Every structure is written in C-alpha cells, then in structure tokens.
Amino acid sequence: MKMIVSRKLLAPALLAIATAPLALSAAAAGHGQGAELHKEQRQEQRQEQREQRQETRAEHRTEQRQAFLERAGIDKPTREALEKARGEHHAAMRQLHEQHRERLDELLDDDQRAAMKEARGKMQEERRAEMMARGKRGNGMGHDKPYHGHGDKRGG
To answer: Domain residue spans in the chain?
Structure first.
C-alpha cells in the first residue's frame, strides 16, 4: 500500500521539478514590457488601501474616544472643545511634519536620500530577522515585550 502512495506522489513531484525552470523563466520574462505599469498600479492600489485603513482606524478611534469621554462623565460642550483642540493639535503636527520634510529636501540630494532609504530598509530587515530568531513575532511597536509583573512594562 505504501508503494502505491509513493508512486502517486512521485509523479506530481517529478512533474513539478521538470516544469520549475520553465515557470521561473516565464516569471523572469514578465519583468520586461508592462512590468513598470503593473508595478505602478500595485503601488497605487496599496496607497488606496492604506488610505482606506487609515480612514477606518480614524473613525474607530473617534468612536472609542467619544465612548471613553461619555463613560468618564464629560459633558457634550467639553467633549466638543476637546475634539476641537485635538483637531488643532493634529493640524499643527501635520504642518510641522511638512516643514521638516521640506527642510530634509533642502539638506539631502537624491543620492543621499536613496542611501538613507536603503540603510533604513537593511536595518529593518536585520531587526526583523533578529526578532524572528528570538521567536518573537511582534509588530515592532513594543507590544512583543514580556510583562514582568512589577507594576510597569519593562523591555525584554
């Protein structure tokens, strides 16, 4: 019985091994014409998805904030004032961020910016590999650190 199972599995495995070079060469050939257009479409799609997620999260956070303030017994005029102050804070932070970007554009040329992007990517890869080697699958936001039970969270 085991011989039959092995023969049944052997044929598809041999077929996969035989066709793998063809599949790889076909995939490599696809990087010619139209690949840049496809890449741009994927980037646009990712950007749209990112914006949708941000919008959804913002709505969810607003609902959570309102529920929190209601539960805390904060009256409606005060909640509205807090929301206005929050909006002003975010607008100021966006403006500061834009000013910082403009300043970086003044200080860095394209090659320096590309070098920084590459170095950042390599460092992220190294950190991700280090975390995976330790068996942690956190999101890099510190939520993967163990809680030591001392009344505060300490790094692990």
So the answer is: 49-131
